[in-house]
Amino acid sequence: MATNNITFWKLIDSHKISIPIIQRDYAQGREEEIEKREKFLNSILRYLQNEEQMHLDFVYGREKENVFYPIDGQQRLTTLFLLHWYFALKENVDAEKKEKLSKFVYDTRISSREFCNTLIREDIKIPTSINDDYFIKYIKNKQWYRVVWDNDPTIKAMLVMIQALHNKFHDFNSYDVFERLTNSDLISFELLDLGRKGFELTDELYIKMNARGKQLTSFENFKANFIQFIEKKFKDKKLKHPIKGEISYSGYFAYKIEKEWTDLFWAYRGNKKTIDDAFINYFEFVTQMFYFKKK
Question: Kind and range of the H or E element at 246?
Fold first, then answer.
């Protein structure tokens, strides 16, 4: 698997997507994440309405024996899984296409894995009512729904996202969204396989890159926003990378901060379990120096 621009459907067509045990729970569906969730879904809706292509930046992971294990991008991949599932139901696509979604697997908990599988296998109808958690109640009232699933934070978040998708897209006047999702580059992302030669993602580094807690930290939010800023500010700028060759400024920054710079700061973390503060302190220092130099 090379670094390339790809869609969720193309990835799942050639690989199983396995969310590893070490990954945090699904967060985009948390009730307190309503602002981020609405912003993301509004963006998707806007691109659908304008019939434009949407790019979701980088997804990092490791490929092994036709299984892709994401490191960064789990949240977006899970939301894309639910988006494809929702429109597959809404547009009543054939069972064979819907079955392909079963290649998206959550290994964080058995209950999460079973829930995703059940969504695909069971006969679920799109409710006619929106809001008031109607879709959530509909699923929970199904005979196959297990009460113990209420204790799984990933399932709880998925249910919230399903309701949000329903509220946002139920009245969207289009009958070919699933076709566009699966047969075009409607929503794509840059896939980076850190397991291939040249990146050499080890298990130790994999653990370090995923050992920063269950919720996104303020630094992780800053990092994501800063990558977007670089891409907008220097969209057409390129530089040479010893491994990747010609690469965008945002791609270079994203790769370095997730691998080499993480290794560098990790050695100086002391008794702390994260290196977020070290990164923030460094960026603040460099920013001050640029300010003083400019003035």
Answer: strand 245-248
Tell me how far apart the alpha carbons of residues 125 and 189 are, in angstroms, rounded to a whole number.
Answer: 30
* Mean pLDDT along residues 240-252: 78
- Pick from 87, 89, 86, 79: which is nearest to 40 by CA? 79
CB of 189 within 8 A of CB of 55? Answer: yes
pTM score, whole prediction: 0.69
**136 and 162 in contact (C-beta within 8 Å)?**
yes
Looking up tokens 């929106």, which residue turns up? 130
241 phi/psi in degrees, rounded to 5: -120, 135
**Integer distance in angstroms from the first to the last C-alpha of the chain?**
47
Tens-digit pLDDT profile for residues 93-151 = 888 888 999 999 987 677 888 899 999 999 899 988 887 899 999 999 999 998 888 88
The radius of gyration computed from the CA coordinates of the chain, to the nearest angstrom, equals: 20
What is the Cα–Cα distance from 113 to 179, expressed in whole angstroms? 26
Matching residue, tokens 């920063």: 212
DSSP 57-108: EEEEEEEETTEEEEEE-HHHHHHHHHHHHHHHHHTT--HHHHHGGGGEEE-S
Among candidate residues 172, 3, 165, the one with its CA nearest the CA of residue 85: 165
